Amino acid sequence: MLPTLVIGLREGLEAALIVGIIAAFLRKQGRSDLVRWVLAGVAVAIGLCVAAGVALEIYSRDLPQRQQEGLETVVGALAVAMVTYMVVWMKRHSRELKGHLEQQAAGLLDGRSKAARAMVLMAFLAVIREGVETVVFLVAAFNETGAGAGAGAGAVIGIAAAAVLGYGIYRGGVRLNLSRFFRATGIVLVLVAAGLVVNALHTAHEAGWLDAGQTSTVDLSWLVRPGTVQASLLTGMLGVQSHPVLIEVVGWLLYLIPVGWYVAWTPGRSMPVRWLAPALAVATTVAAVGVVVAVSPGSDDTSTVTNVASSGAPAVRSVNVTVTSAHGCTMDADVLRAGVVTIHVVNEDATAVSEVELMSGERIVGEKENLPPGFSGTFNVAVHAGTYTLYCPGATPERQSLTVTGTARAATGDVAALLKQATTGYAGYVTGQVAALVRSTRALDTALHGTDLATAQRAYMLARPYYEKIEPVAESFVQGNDSLDADIDSRAGDVPAERWRGFHRIEQALFARRTLLGTAHHGDRLLADVRRLQRLVTGLIFQPTELANGAQELLDEVAASKITGEEERYSHIDVLDIANNVEGSQQAFAQLQPALERIDPSSSATIARAFVTLESLVDGYRTRANPSGYRLYGSLTRADKTSLAAAVKAVQEPLSQVGSKVAGG
User: Which residues on adjacent β-strands are paired with residue 328?
Assistant: First the structure.
């Protein structure tokens, strides 16, 4: 709210001053009749600026996620350029602004017949210039803060205050030292602009335009805690992020130091131009390198894994979520303790709601799917202090806020070390699978640009396994209305026809229509989405509960869409998907198994045996008669499907308890 308030006040006052000075001059010259025309020009300019802002917002909403990120980058860069020009120009001209404008107005009044139009045009251009700057700057600030209501209120308050001050100056009742005012607000705006630099670098990476400098530097989540006033001020005013990367730290310093120095320099003091530029360059470079070296994580990682089994009472709070068609999702608590949260979900009669998710920002940290009316389920997540969202797609309302307070207890002893090894090992597994997915998808894209249908079909089969192994990770990335999993893996009917893309759009062309026509474009988009997944998982940190939940979700996928043959409805390679879902689930469990053997040896052994049985059963469907390496779904008998379902369930049931065990439940 504070950044947009300053923007509204600063830009609004510039426009109000110009209009006020013109109006006051006209009154002194006995031409009050022209004031109403000046105000008419102001009104038209304001209307055009508001329309431009609305049009920009509407246009950006309809863009796919990657194009949205690109547009935000462009808007952010324009905002930084505009504010830099604005504060530099005003620093130079604030003292003589009044005299300069009156001189212009006097010149215009010399031609009496054209005076009205000239004055209207002068006021119109002044307001339209400041208004366009304000729109661009506010849109960039909204994108950075993400708090639409608060940011909007700040802008309105700032503009209203500017209008009041401008009118007071016009009437002569308010005297303001413009030089000091613009210097003070200029310093604030430079801080805001430095934050916009960081945001623009971040969105440029999300848009696929910038891959350099993405090395993690420092974990500031203890300082910038999402949902707190402190985080809003630090991020909104200074651009400080909870997990800044190298390019963001360097960009922030390279902008803030030289521009901030110039704006803060005391007016009237001579500026040592000869040595200032090289000195600033050296100081900025040294500061950037020093900060990066200071904050870069070393090999001695002293971070601790939280919320695992230990002596004493576990930090768990159970939340009951009831889903009904009449009231949507209702919770029996919305303020939780940091630590492990166990969420029980019961769907009484809501046909439109089949899943419940707990989200941190736009990332799903826990979920329960496949909950038709009459079904229930439970999932466990480890949460730190901050604000979370309970998301029930299809409910009214779909999103509700939860607040987590307190500090989660750190794990100690051998179990903590084993769990930390598990999360590190799984992160490495995911990174490797995504790298293989990028390579195989690139080969598929190349085949789709060719003319050999059989080669393209084989390439499709070779790419599918890598996604199926780590699908829950992709499902956790939901940004606005854009779900990464939907972009990559949605089936016909899952999304509107005009938005359908990804693997199964290509599958339909290759196996149902048996053509390569029109597939090259979809191959390019799939490769871009897979690369986006790769950027998002780079450096991703997992919690032990995420491994447990992910292992269960993969088996849920098998039960919900693979055994029924709904996933690969054109190529019928569902058994290949089943095999890789099982492998991905088994890998996640295998990472947790050493710790689970310490926590609950009996449960660990039960799950391991059930996995062996399931894996052996799936291996029985291998064949060389099909390029996928497995029998096609159409060859499975009812008995085959029943056996698979039973074997999957035998793993699912004990596996569903692992989340609470590794979290300390």
Answer: 324
